[in-house]
Amino acid sequence: VAAGRVQEFACFTDYDKELVCHWKVSAQTNCSKEFLLYYRKEFFFLPNHVCVPENGKDSLRCTCTIRPDYFVSGLTYILALQFNGTEMWNYSVTPALVVKPRAPKNLAIGKAENGNFNLSWEDSYSPPSMLSGQPVIYEVKYWRKQHPTEVSVKAINYQANSFEITASSLRRGYDYVASVRCNYTDYPAYWSEWSEGVEFHYGYHVTAEDILQMVVPVSCILIMAVSVICYFCFTK
């Protein structure tokens, strides 16, 4: 932390249960001993609440999790960051402008009669959450488990909790993984994280179309071969 300045301070919220703020620190920083984050609602002149930060997973960030009683669109928080007893940073955050929704859950996948794969999921919000029933768009990505860098991403710009992965976009004999993320269009600041993946296998099951694709060329070759043989037989 530079004197009088905080690096990469940012906040986001799931707009349901928590508001998370984090900032960059050096690797040796003990967040809970060196920092305190004070917060209060704007226009509510009540005593400040305090959040004791924790070291992030990478040890290069301090993270403070605030759990408000409620969320409303016009709510703004006034924040003050204290470092070793000295206030060094003031900030305001409006949760409605920094919504990072929770990822979709309960992914499931099954094979359709046409040979494609139907991927379905559930939203992570239900009444009385502010995001329950709000307009939402999704992105689906899937990849061969053995080749995780070769990813197909499909946008779903309509209200749906399912997506059909076409067999023609897959390669036979491979295991695949599919995942989904979402963005609420009235609160578009952030996409959610990608959901937990669901696995499926595209095997060597032979369809009627596959049989037809094999039979037609083989039949043509046989007809040509018989025609050639007959020609030579009759010309002798």
TrEMBL record:
Membrane topology annotation: Single-pass type I membrane protein
GO biological process: production of molecular mediator involved in inflammatory response
Molecular function via GO: cytokine receptor activity
Transmembrane segments: 214-234
PROSITE patterns: FN3 (PS50853), HEMATOPO_REC_S_F1 (PS01355)
Alphabetical UniProt keywords: Disulfide bond, Glycoprotein, Membrane, Phosphoprotein, Receptor, Signal, Transmembrane, Transmembrane helix
Pfam families: IL4Ra_N (PF09238)
Keyword Transmembrane helix: yes
InterPro entries: FN3_dom, FN3_sf, Hempt_rcpt_S_F1_CS, Ig-like_fold, IL-4_rcpt-alpha_N
Entries under CDD domains matching the protein: FN3 (cd00063)
UniProt family annotation: Belongs to the type I cytokine receptor family. Type 4 subfamily.
Protein name (Swiss-Prot/TrEMBL): Interleukin-4 receptor subunit alpha
Naturally occurring in which organism (per UniProt): Pterocles gutturalis (yellow-throated sandgrouse)
